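Readers of this paper often ask what the protein records in our data store actually look like. This encoding replaces a full spatial description with a residue-level series of whole-number codes. For reference, a complete record is included directly beneath this paragraph.
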Amino acid sequence: MTEREGLGGHLDQSKVEAFAGRIFEMLNVSARAMFVSMGQKTGLFAVMSRLPPSTSRQIAEAAGLDERYVREWLGGMVVGRVVDYDPSGGTYALPPEHALVLNARDATRMAGHVQHLPHLFAAEPAILKCFREGGGLPWAEHPASGCVPVGEADSDATLLQRITASAPGLVDRLKDGIDAADFGCGNGHTLNVMARAFPRSRFTAYDLLPDLIATGRDEAEKLGLSNARFVVQDMTALDLRDAYDLIMVFDVVHDAAKPRALLKVISAALRPGATFFMADVRASSLLEKNLDHPLAPYHFLWSITWCMTGSLAAGGEGLGSMWGEEKTLEYLSDAGFRDVAIHRPPDDYINNFYICTKQR
């Protein structure tokens, strides 16, 4: 073991070299992530999953893309061990096992989250300014403001199963016709999926961002949904009493400027016996319990560049996405929710699902 003097005394040179290796790993992993994002956004992975081993020109033609850029991208994917290369024929192939993960929208859908990273990285200059001056980066000004929210990465079928399995009898009630709402609806796709599946029920979507509401409304019109409406609204300013039989919230409460006020509004808006379905990041409120969390760094990145900073920009608490299960239960209790069931699906790597029934 080699040691040398450092600011804190003797340094373990083997630890120095090991950590330097981790920095190399970070650089290469980050580069792979950017290449994967490019492959998903250009459709190259989808194209390659349908092709036999092919040249860069053949792949570019099939994808309708510029060959020189495709060839350079393929180089990055080959050395990144994502794409296989046969030098004898100059052909590239996407292994079927890789294609399954890269193109999936089910339990292996995590690869889709890679597309968010360039947008989160692009927020760095604004976040560094917040380090020096405080405050936050408003969601409407964020480079990721047009992205599909993380919670909407599920396939439509998985999404329906997540919600409808949450409370006994909910499916029958939705089929018969109830009043339901999505607080913080994002681009509105979740609500439109529900409205399409249960045409007798009436659905209302609320969000602060007009562009997202417009996206949801446009999709509803294209789908011919007459039972979905979209409202630009500060949800903490709503004054509703016994208005809904179901309220859904997907990864929103920890973003809110006033999360306690939001939960109290939701509690008041629910009818007796109604269901509150809340998805939020699966984590502990105790930092030391997150050391082995498989996605903790990713969640903290979202938090500092989107969740926490967006809340602070609105003068809010800045809970952050890693506020954790313990604090979530505390906030729910303070809002009047006493019996809270927590679903932790083994095939979901992101969220806990909190199911609350309003007392009659």
Remarks:
- Confidence is low (pLDDT under 50) at residues 148-153.
- The domain at 119-357 is CATH 3.40.50.150 (Rossmann fold).
